[in-house]
Write a structure and sequence with these properties.
mainly alpha; elongated
Length: 73
């Protein structure tokens, strides 16, 4: 069973401590996956607007979250 599948099953656990920990782990996994995909899209020449459109967020939101230029990185 994949990590995501296991966590998704645990997220439905009736014990809140188990369910909430699984939700937190899923949120962290999702953030890592999104960052990897945004980086990949940028490397392939996608604009911030194209990425924002697919993620259904504003261009400003995705640019602010993932643009590393000017942040000392």
């Amino acid at each position: 069973m994949s990590e995501a599948t296991k966590l998704a099953a645990e997220a439905g656990n009736p014990e809140p401590r188990i369910g909430l920990r699984a939700v937190l782990a899923l949120r962290r996994l999702l953030e890592r996956l999104e960052a990897m995909q945004v980086a990949s899209a940028r490397e392939q020449g996608w604009s911030w607007q194209e990425i924002a459109d697919v993620l259904e967020v504003s261009k400003q939101a995705v640019h602010h979250k993932y643009n590393k230029k000017g942040r000392g990185s």
